[in-house]
Amino acid sequence: xxxxxxxxxxxxxxxxxxxxxxxxxxxxxxxxxxxxxxxxxxxxxxxxxxxxxxxxxxxxxxxxxxxxxxxxxxxxxxxxxxxxxxxxxxxxxxxxxxxxxxxxxxxxxxxxxxxxxxxxxxxxxxxxxxxxxxxxxxxxxxxxxxxxxxxxxxxxxxxxxxxxxxxxxxxxxxxxxxxxxxxxxxxxxxxxxxxxx
Length: 197
Fold this sequence. Notes:
Layout: E1 2-3, E2 9-10, E3 14-15, E4 23-24, E5 31-39, E6 45-52, E7 55-57, E8 60-62, E9 65-72, E10 87-90, E11 106-112, E12 118-125, E13 131-138, E14 153-156, E15 162-170, E16 176-183, E17 188-195
Parallel strand pairs: 3-4
Antiparallel strand pairs: 1-2, 5-6, 6-9, 7-8, 9-10, 11-12, 12-13, 13-14, 15-16, 16-17
């Protein structure tokens, strides 16, 4: 559900092949969860969340979650100039899960920089088998910005401890601040990361 500036309420509830008012769109085969909305200056909406296609390994189902972004026009339709037909799925973790363990790359926050680039942050499951702060940046066309981190992604761990980024903001100098927590095993500690633009 989203309320326009005019006061009109837009619901995404009726199944259809288009993501128009009173409709829904499926990205992954198993899980499609809408988490965050932000609006571009031109009125288009950026939807950020996570999705999973799922796979079967050795008789057990593994669900590998990935970041998902969609752009919705003011009409309620997907913007087919964004990503691939209005959406893009971004895997963060490259850990091998053939053993049946699931990778859960889960988005926690999104924001739009003054130059129109889109930043998302959350968590990814690292090769050290703990969660890391994980941030990505998309260009204005919805593709990964390869000038950001490693091929558009930054995966940062805190000394082998589980860590989850929960929010982000942009400084006036263009630097990106992400904040969340680190789980030491006995308590949760506040954690902050600052990323150069």
